[in-house]
Amino acid sequence: MEIVIEYVLIENLFIDLMIFKTTALVLKIKGRYLFLVSLFASVFALILPIFHLGSVSSFFVKILFGVLLVNLSFKFSTFRSFLKVFLVFIFSTFLYGGVASFITQTFGEVAVLVLLGGVTLSYFVTKYIVKFLSRRKQVQNFCYDVELEVSGRRLNCKGFLDTGNLLTDPLTSRPVSIIGLKLFTQIFGEDSMLELLTKKVDVSKFKLGHYISLDTVGKSDKVLAFEIDKMFVEGREVADCPILALSFKDFPSYEMIIKSTFV
Known about the structure:
Layout (H helix, E strand, L loop, with lengths): L1 H26 L6 H14 L7 H19 L5 H29 L4 H30 L1 E8 L2 E9 L14 E4 L1 H8 L1 H8 L12 E7 L2 E9 L2 E4 L2 E5 L2 E4 L9 E3 L5
Parallel strand pairs: 2-9, 3-8
Antiparallel strand pairs: 1-2, 1-6, 3-9, 4-5, 5-8, 6-7
């Protein structure tokens, strides 16, 4: 019986620790005494059944104990910030409790390491999702609606503001915005894309077509640059006869990289 209690204590301790770490991860805050608080929570989970509380009483006791744990683990400046942390804590509790329940119901009485491995995997999946969403939000905050005018046509796209884009056209001394292959195809058609891929492109068919150096990490490439009629950012004209350069790099959630001077 002693061994069983030790196993349960280890499982609860680890899961509680993951709950607190996930809460801190999602909200990007720093926790305190997480190991000690997790140990406290694990001991509480072991002794609670001794009191034989009813389901309603047990529910309210757990809620009050959760409030205590959150206050011990995190600092708050307002009730709103406490409520935010508490709700994420509850969500994390359901998440890992559900994972542990799924593993035990699916595989029966599995070894402790298997259960902890499943919980650990869930933590890293959650961590990846949080980082992905955070990165996506950062990108969206620097994305602008861009409209390009080419030969009387207007094309709408998303432009990403890159303060590190210092590219200047050596031929005209104008700032250069970088577009991807998808937007290039929308402007000039698939035939032009095939010419580029087979390196049989005639630069004279592009307005002020020429090649410039595009420096990336560890290397420098010669890329096609050309002039278009007009460029608008958020409905405001930012450049007359702007210069665009083609990059074969795939952009995740936007079609071009614009300079900070255009915003």
